[in-house]
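User: Before I run my own analysis I want an independent prediction to cross-check against. Here's the chain; please return only the structure tokens and, at the end, one sentence I can use as a sanity check.
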Amino acid sequence: MNLQQYLIRRLLLIIPTFLGITVITFMVIQLAPGNPAAMKLRMGEQGMMGDESTREIVEATKKLYGLDKPIWTRYGIWLKRVVTFDFGTSYKDHRLVMDKIAERLPITIELNLISIFLVYLLAIPIGVYSAVEQGTIRDKVMTVILFILYSLPNFWVAVLLIMFLGGGDFLDWFPIYGISSAGMEGAAFLSRLWDHLWHLMLPVFCLTYGGLAGLSRFMRAGVLEVIRQDYIRTARAKGLPEKLVIFKHAMRNSIIPIITLMGYLLPGMLGGSIIIESIFSIPGMGQLSFEAVLSRDYPVVMAIATISALLTLVGILISDLLYVWADPRITYEAEA
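Assistant: Structure tokens:
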């Protein structure tokens, strides 16, 4: 089976899997406690009326949003729209859901791509170095530091950074609100770029250090397992330099667990930064998700959940393709 046949087979398998995910997600969200019609009523002045008037307004609102139809009918209508990536309009402000997502998605992708790049750029060499130096003082110190970083909640670290470096009680080095300073619209490109990057410093750090600590330990464990294999001993017996043995033979085969984790980073880009975006007032997908859940904005919640599911399936497919690159013993025939 060649690459093209394998991709066609996997893409065909994605379709029923995706449909199953959408059914479960739709049912869970629709059957969750809370009612968007009643929620919208409570946010308006109509909540001051009598019980009878309140019930009439709730029923009218349900009819307006199609919430009076059976759940399977609502699912069918929603699924037809999903095929064309039409997620309808938001219950909260009646804007197109895709327009709202298009506004928030770029900044979330930027934040997470920078974070993922830094995590892999630093975690892989740190993990390899820690494995090579196993049992030494340097390895023990590095292990303690990484475990401390891994145990620190990112929201707590974000608050500390704001207090100590963001003009809280001590230094005022970094901006802590939004992604750009006021009045930068007419500034030169390099000035705007630097201002934008300076705003991202603290959020990116909060999104990076935990993944860096965890991924480096995965890499260390993978290298330690591989360097005990017979072919590594053979390579050393042939007199190959230790760096060549580690980076050419051991590292490539020990990177498979890291590739597996990479497959789940794509969907994580949508909702994984909810807390950090809220703390730093960054208008991204995380903040949009949080607001949609609080207001029972079903179209927005379903759109984000659906896109996350699709990205998960695509991420797993990419991981499977990278397995073949990382380990020649894995073939498309074996995957099939």
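Sanity check: Residues 22-83 form one domain.
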